[in-house]
Amino acid sequence: MTDPAAPPWLHLISAFLAMEPSDSLVSLARVCGDGSVTERVQRFIWNYCISRAVGKAYAPYLRNFLKKLIVEVESIHGEVLDEIYELYADIITSLKDDQFVEKSMRVHKTITFLFPDGCIDLPSCPKSRKLMVPLQCSLNMLEGDTGCSIWPSSLLLSEFILSFPEIFSNKSCFEVGSGVGLVGICLAHVKASKVTLTDGDHLTLANMRSNLELNQLSTDTSLLESYEDPNVVQCVHLPWESASESGLSAFVPEIILGADILYDRSCFPDLVRILAILLNRRKSDSSSRKESTKGFTLDTKCNTNDLNDLTAVTSKGPVAYIATVIRNIDTFNYFLSLVEQANLSITDLTEAKMPFNLLPYMQSYDRSNMRLFTVSSKA
């Protein structure tokens, strides 16, 4: 029986909506057909993926997928559905030359978080065990449109928020380099008391606000409001290089977040300066803290006892949760040295507090080279 609400069929739909690579989709289709893309699998793809996307999907993506699908079926001497052949012919006719396709256009993806068995009691878990987040984003990450792309570590940080909602629920949260707004949407879902998203690019902020509205969230750009409404997200223009202590005085977050913000070392001094300002905002509360972390190295494992109740950390002072892909070890070590100079403490959570795998259908999403850590003040 082909139940679209159950794996592996659900994984196939979710991967298509997330615009996973065509090879990944074909691989999932094989799983659905017990090793081959049968006529039944094709019919499922047509009914639950393709037919619902016609007119909405990014045509070059759909063309590439259909081509891969047709080649796969023909390679085992199978019969390709007439509807699939006809749609492929229509698309290649309409896309006569790739040079006429606007490569910087926005596309719509849907990131579907699938909660495994045993998570039904999590406050963040919907009754359907499925949380769908539609996002307008860019495919043009390599040509300067980074703020409107979905970065891998934002997926990890979002999984962490949804896996441990008690850390963020009823907390004032502030994200640096918010990009498409995925992390903020997850914070609103787990009922953070206040969500502030920031970015240094005006076009990215405009796209972010569109994504918040796509997810039924209101936005506000005022720095004067002191509301605490999880359905209202504050969007703020924050260029790191010009941010000052007085300019950040309106923000007193309990939790600071950042995902994939450690790729440009020239920005690190300003980033660490901002973190230090926000993390030292409550010096009076921090003075009585006991030091619970040791110096960070890449091999450090956080003390399990310290992780039993991470919600207690924010009662002792603000804490930052940062997820990153380590692309260059020297670049990362430079960040660590600046953190030490700023009298901040860093703790690796990667091994001890990894979130549930809520994106099992994303074969392109590799958590093995990602790190998740906290930063806090030593003061």
| Spatial strand order of the main sheet | 5-6-4-3-7-8-10-9
Major sheet characteristics: 8 strands, mixed
Rg calculated over all Cα atoms: 22 Å
Structural class computed from helices and strand pairing: alpha/beta
Strand residues, percent: 15-25%
End-to-end CA span: 60 Å
Number of helices: 13
Uncertain stretches: 283-308
Mean pLDDT across residues: 86
Helix content: 25-40%
Tell me the overall shape: elongated
What is the string of helix and strand elements?
HHHHHEEHHEHEHEEEHHHEHEE
Number of strands: 10
Protein name: Protein-lysine n-methyltransferase eef2kmt
Describe the structure.
This is Protein-lysine n-methyltransferase eef2kmt. It comes from Citrus sinensis. The protein is of the alpha/beta class and 379 residues long. The chain is built from 13 helices and ten strands. It has an eight-stranded mixed β-sheet, with helices on both faces. Helix 4 packs across helix 5. It is elongated.
Main attributes?
single chain, 379 residues, alpha/beta, 8-stranded mixed β-sheet, two-stranded antiparallel ribbon, 13 helices, elongated
Question: Helices, strands, pairings?
Answer:
Elements: H1 9-17, H2 22-32, H3 39-53, H4 59-75, H5 82-94, E1 106-114, E2 130-138, H6 152-163, H7 165-168, E3 172-175, H8 182-189, E4 194-199, H9 202-214, E5 218-220, E6 232-237, E7 255-259, H10 268-279, H11 283-286, H12 304-307, E8 319-325, H13 329-341, E9 344-348, E10 370-377
Parallel strand pairs: 3-4, 3-7, 4-6, 5-6, 7-8
Antiparallel strand pairs: 1-2, 8-10, 9-10
Protein name: Protein-lysine n-methyltransferase eef2kmt
Organism: Citrus sinensis
